[in-house]
What we know:
mainly beta, 3 domains
Amino acid sequence: MKNFSTVGARLVGAALLAGVMATPAQAKARCEFRANAPDQHTVVKHDTLWDISGKFLEHPWCWPQVWGMNKAQIRDPHWIYPHQVIYLDRANGRLTLVRPGNGSADSNGITRISPQIRTEGMGLDAIQSIASNVIEPFLSQPLVVDEATLGKAPRIAATREARVTMGKDDTAYVKGELNGISSFQVFRPGTPLRNPDDNKILGYEAVYLGTVKLQKEAKPGVDVHTFIVASSKMEMSVGDLLVPSPPLPIRNYVPHEPDQKINARVVSVYAGVTHAGQNQVLSINRGSVDGVDVGTVLQLYNVGKVVKDTGGKLSRMGNTPTIRLPDEHVGTLFIFRVFDKISYGLIMQVTEPVEVGDVARSSE
């Protein structure tokens, strides 16, 4: 098996994620504990949910199933902390924070516990699902803007002393409606993202430039608002657009199966390259309107090629017939940011390069 890893061993361990949570009918067949699973594991600071689930489970995506987690806990599982002990309850096929035999079980033999209340750090010291440094740059920076956003976005209309470019602490004069918002990200429309199914534009991949803060709103008789560049990743200039800064993103989420079947195509590989390997970011042509949410895990397939059937009968025109090969499963995709019609995901494991037009779908 070829491994296209470019990140450290911790995410290689995370790459064991190769599917999604089973439905109840499938749970016994798919949610199996490893033959050499330990009886317990003491959580340490740099553990992730994948690190731990990989110690216990043959298929780490079964993590929500063996904990009996509800939707709220899947979305925000701030309840496992360093120094806690996770036990394998072999009799009931569950993971628990209560030593087997020390807690009360329900009618199904399942020990239920409530998440422990922790005020320290407001949950920030809870262990993470994945090593967030890999996707940190993508959690809050604009990636996709649609035509509606482009049409109503405030824009940088002028600079102090007619500067061509701006950096940190420079002044920008902005024209447009602020709607009571004072903190914005600055972007420049980039590559159009086309749906591989019909070639229609789904949105534009935005080039993130930095952030600006409102210093003074436009007064009567003045056409522009005054902003200060708070941070600069790239130089800004007249014509660049503003989008409100998003709220602090959720950093902890559990991998899970989408609520409905998803059959998506790869729209782009981030950073403009043609092929993607492990720990690279992809966009797909499905979003929140299709039932995709943060934490959704999809299977990646290379599209089956059409090849000549050299052993088949020639057509009346003398042409060699063709056959279509099946799609080949090559890895998994973890969705970490979702827009209306597009989502971004991190490739957790891959055996062959993934390219635009390949398939990302829910488990069969």
